[in-house]
Write a sequence for this structure.
């Protein structure tokens, strides 16, 4: 038996349709097997809250052994997992094809799927994950909804905390009445002189960009058009990441089939597919083929999908970019999102921004702590802030003009962490790297991407 796998990690299809997948005795036995390996290794101690929780449970037993940990305590370990996939992709030496066959995130998913099947996932938690429904409802009166859900509205947020268990201090996404799909009905002119002219791509809007931050989509489309890429916006439904977090794998499979069916004609016509948020590109590329492994349309979509930064870096290397990039005042503090790292494509957002002349770039590759809907819940928010504190501290110490992240939720969470560090400040918003890139091209109005205020003194530690 080898000490650690030297081969590329592989993943097995998720057998969620079988009865054995939900068998509690089988799940408990697998949890004990995997947790014992993790306890003996401990390489993942500084990732999510699952691992410190697990190690504390073991260390608190009389014999400091896994056998003495009660099965009832396993829920605490599972609850700390945000399905970021970093333990599988970047840390664990025992993933398949190693003999130990350890896939920690998918084991956590299996536990949650069993909970969901028994009706143990709360109604309010499920309601928060209905992003399409919530986006459409919020868009009916965005001004009112954004006022009501702002952290400054203490009375309403106190009620939300009591009823929905959403922490009153957690920043929530804003809603827009005019979605990205609506704004994209008129396509920007295509630059026929660009080296990439002739390329065609479908933009998978994602629920976040469509309902909460259309500016990301508009920036992406403007940059692509300037580089000769014809684009269409297609958004049949959310990728199902919120449902995956809850263990509702059946709903994820439905979304996969629906979106893949909608994308199939475009792929057959030679279009690439670009996802605008890394969590969504991760779902399309990797999770969906494991959930519906026999669906040829899903397999084709996986092969055709790119993250927006990945796509533009590839364009720059193959055909070259259109001229016009200009230096920006101030530097950029860039956070590499966990779900971008889990795609195993390298630091594509950093590669993209380094194409800007004279860029002053500082990169942080560590978890922001947010974890999707996990990070806004009352029981998790302070833990999420603690996990993300090193990233927030790095951004403060770097003292750049822009604080950016590929993940919009992570970006806002980092800003909240920065504001909690004594003597520091933060910009109002965290832009996506594509928005900074669009500004460097002069495709956005000056000042449309928020700058950080001057930070008089970097914070140590």
């Amino acid at each position: 038996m080898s000490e650690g796998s030297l081969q590329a990690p592989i993943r097995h299809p998720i057998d969620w349709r079988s009865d054995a997948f939900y068998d509690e005795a089988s799940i408990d036995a697998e949890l004990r097997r995997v947790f014992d390996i993790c306890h003996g290794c401990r390489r993942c101690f500084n990732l999510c809250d699952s691992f410190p929780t697990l190690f504390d449970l073991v260390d608190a037993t009389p014999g400091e052994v896994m056998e003495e940990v009660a099965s009832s305590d396993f829920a605490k370990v599972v609850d700390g997992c945000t399905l970021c996939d970093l333990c599988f992709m970047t840390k664990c030496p025992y993933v398949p094809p190693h003999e130990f066959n350890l896939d920690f995130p998918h084991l956590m998913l299996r536990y949650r799927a069993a909970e969901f099947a028994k009706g143990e996932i709360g109604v309010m938690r499920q309601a928060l994950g209905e992003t399409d429904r919530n986006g459409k409802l919020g868009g009916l009166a965005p001004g009112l909804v954004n006022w009501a859900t702002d952290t400054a509205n203490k009375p309403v947020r106190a009620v939300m905390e009591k009823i929905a268990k959403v922490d009153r201090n957690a920043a929530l996404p804003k809603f827009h009445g005019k979605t990205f799909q609506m704004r994209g009905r008129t396509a920007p002119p295509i630059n026929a002189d660009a080296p990439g002219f002739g390329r065609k791509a479908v933009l998978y809007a994602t629920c976040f960009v469509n309902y909460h931050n259309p500016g990301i989509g508009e920036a992406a489309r403007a940059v692509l058009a300037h580089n000769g890429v014809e684009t269409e916006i297609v958004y049949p439904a959310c990728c199902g990441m919120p449902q995956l977090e809850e263990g509702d794998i059946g709903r994820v499979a439905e979304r996969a089939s629906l979106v893949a069916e909608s994308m199939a004609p475009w792929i057959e016509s030679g279009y690439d597919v670009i996802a605008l948020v890394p969590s969504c590109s991760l779902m399309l590329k990797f999770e969906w083929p494991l959930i519906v492994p026999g669906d040829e349309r899903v397999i084709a979509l996986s092969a055709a999908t790119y993250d927006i930064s990945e796509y533009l870096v590839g364009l720059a290397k193959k055909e070259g970019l259109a001229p016009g990039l200009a230096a920006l005042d101030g530097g950029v503090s860039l956070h590499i999102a966990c779900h971008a790292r889990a795609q195993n494509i390298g630091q594509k957002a950093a590669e993209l921004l380094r194409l800007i002349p004279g860029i002053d770039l500082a990169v942080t590759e560590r978890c922001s702590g947010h974890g999707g809907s996990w990070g806004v819940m009352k029981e998790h928010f302070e833990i999420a802030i603690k996990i993300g504190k090193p990233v927030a501290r790095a951004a403060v110490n770097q003292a750049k003009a822009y604080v950016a992240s590929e993940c919009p939720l992570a970006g806002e969470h980092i800003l909240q962490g920065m504001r909690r560090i004594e003597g520091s400040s933060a910009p109002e918003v965290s832009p996506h790297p594509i928005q900074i890139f669009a500004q460097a091209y002069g495709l956005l109005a000056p000042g449309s991407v928020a700058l950080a205020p001057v930070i008089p003194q970097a914070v140590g530690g």
Q: What stands out?
A: Strands lie at 200-204, 230-234, 272-275, 305-307, 332-335, 361-364, 402-405. The first helix runs from residue 24 to 41. Confidence is low (pLDDT under 50) at residues 453-461. The domain at 324-440 is CATH 3.40.50 (Rossmann fold).
